[in-house]
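Why does residue order matter? Because the sequence determines the fold. Keep that principle in mind as you read this record.
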Amino acid sequence: KYFQQLMPGEWMPYNLLAQEAILTQDWVAADKNFEKALQIKPDLFDLRFWYAQNLLRLGRPVEAEKLFRQLIKEEPGRLDIQINLANLMVNRLQYDEAVEIFRHVNAELPGNVGFMMDQASMELRVGELLAADQLCLDVMAIETNNIRAMTLRADIAEIGGMTHQSVERLQKVIDATTDPILRAKLHVRMATRCNLLNEHKQGNFSVDYILGLLRQAIDENPQDMGTQQIYAEHLFQADRYGESRQWAVHVLEKFNRHSIRAKDLLFELALAEKRFDEAEQVLSDRYENYDPTDPMRYYYEARLLVARGSYNEALQKLDCMEAAGTQG
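Structure:
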């Protein structure tokens, strides 16, 4: 404001006000001041670039893209603007153009780990698994324990159907990770991966091993409700009904008393143990407190009736489900 008094009608004070607004994350104020500056100096290159970046913050990507492309046309050597355009293309899922830009950036700026990994991610997106893997190896030659590169190599192995390599690479990521929250997520991912591999070839990984991974994840991040829910479901699949019930109840009592997944699990447990009155009570609680008109209620009631040997009544419930589904 002081500069506005000293320099009336100049663009610089408005630019300074815009930059200050960005520091306080007031994107609207920044936009207004950028526009005032551009009205005075419409051809100033960097001012237009800063304005385009702020357009992204305001959720106006079409305008930002148009301006980025114009700026690149005027100064094709400005890699910083090309990187902004590439990131915008990534957000718009236009990976083919994004990868081309990152290839050019890395050719001009070799050895930049961040840009190399950006390209590797895009190579994977466009199906160039070998190129993505080689970039990860190149990054790891610079930074041995680069978590991003190690994680992407695990992704590549998984997508490429490399069974053992996917597990080995993921374990290396876990070993190199110190953050407990991230380690917990990785342990859940490992458990999910091992369980999926068991579906293709039974016995690859023991039930106890998979449960151990999930228990480690809970210990590392005890506030994650989802992991505890998954753990309870895996205990059920392992026929460890007592433990499974304890964890399902724990989820309801500590995290969310309306958890549909936890209540569905309690229903399955009651059905498996032939505790039919309990299963009926769980169903009543699950739907009365969620959506009593949900047609799937008839399906679960039919399953309960089949378990009790009431087959004709079960068929009637399925008829009700079909009728309710038809009515929407």
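The chain has a mean pLDDT of 93.
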